[in-house]
Amino acid sequence: xxxxELAVVVSAKIEDDARxxxxxxxxxxxxxxxxxxxxxxxxxxxxxxxxIQKMKEGYYYFIHxxxxxTVPSEIxxxxxxxxxxxxxxxxxxxxx
Length: 96
Description:
- This protein is of the alpha+beta class and about 100 residues long.
- The chain is built from two helices and four strands.
- The longest helix has 17 residues.
- It is globular, with a radius of gyration of 13 Å.
């Protein structure tokens, strides 16, 4: 099992419960493909480095999970079509 970190930027234009639903959906993707979510860091609303889809702010989340090497590609495929996700990035963390 490898350790991964998934950074997700969610639209600031949606309500709190809709934003929570997006993160739950992402966590559901991880569980569905055999991964285990270990931690979710919510950084809150931050200013974006540049305007994306006419938005200047987004909510940042960092989801730490453990899974096999095939899971990140499966998650990324679903993240591309998930509504209200502005940007995402999944990186493998080095073994400590």
